[in-house]
Specification:
Elements lengths: L15 E5 L4 H12 L3 E6 L18 E4 L8 H4 L4 E4 L6 H6 L1 H22 L4 E7 L22 H19 L4 E6 L1 E3 L12 H10 L3 E5 L5 E2 L1 E3 H13 L7 E4 L5 E2 H12 L4 E5 L3 H4 L11 H7 L7 H14 L2 H4 L2
Parallel strand pairs: 1-2, 1-4, 2-3, 4-5, 5-6, 6-11, 7-10, 8-13
Antiparallel strand pairs: 9-12
Helix pairs in contact: 1-7, 4-5, 6-8, 8-11
Amino acid sequence: MSATHLHDASALRSARCVVTGGLGFIGSNLVHRLASAGAAVHVIDALVDGHGGDLRNVEGLDVTTQVADVGDPDVAEALAGADVLFNLAGQVSHTRSMRDPEGDLHHNTIAHARLLEQVRAVAPAARVVHASTRQVYGRALHLPVDESHPANPVDVNGVAKLAGEQLHLVYAHAYRMPITSLRLTNVYGPRQHLASDELGFLPVFVRTALLGGTIRLFGDGSQRRDCLHVDDVVDAIVLAATDDAAIGQVFNVGHQVDHSLAEIAHLLVELAASGSDVQLTPWPSEHQRIDIGSFRTDSGAIAARLGWKPRIDLREGLLATLEFYRGHPWYLSST
């Protein structure tokens, strides 16, 4: 993918940046961008089992790493003197959140409350960018969904992420800390964990297409999603950390074009050319009870405030994603 797609992160050259969840999917892509811009990067990751955090995701980069829960007292030393905290840590599986609600609330809410207290104590002037999710909206009352849409999550993960987001905003407003929260849509691209069936449909589809298997669509495949390449997400994260217009705000971050799940599956089959196919299958009950139906994001606010818009269309992004995994087979061997 052309470097012209990447937002210039040079404003963060020599900045002291802490990235929580930095060994995972979105975090490690951000770490690569920051390191290439000359930032001093410290990565904190709890390496929660099944979430794809892996030291190999930042292999070869001049960064420091720390394996710790973001709420641990031990992270205070890394936070002290930080210019920017990119808080991307969290539990992201919707089905797992229903089986282990306390674990989800810990990773997405309690740990973040402890982290924010430490930031307030040792780095209150640090810019903070928090990764939230479109899952906080639940089932859409209308499409596209903008930030004025009611938050009505349908699973524990959505509740916990919303609580974590609101905690960040409380600290922004009560303590005048420069914090921004981004509600991310369905993100895909390099360094995504492919081994789990619980981290969203996109990594499952990508893995199955690469291996020449059968992509199984729940229901009739007509549900629609807007999908966002991780490079576009990193653009938004960097902008949120460097533009004062972002402070104190919550922004949707999604793509302006949506597709049915069937369209996405058949496009992957075409691009992978591996002999994979698509098959409809009945909804498993644990998925159906927390399904949100079709969703399309309205990202007009971040476009107006920060000038961010996604640049990578689905075909281009999926093709680059497949090429990345073919060149890095360990992601597939872990399955």
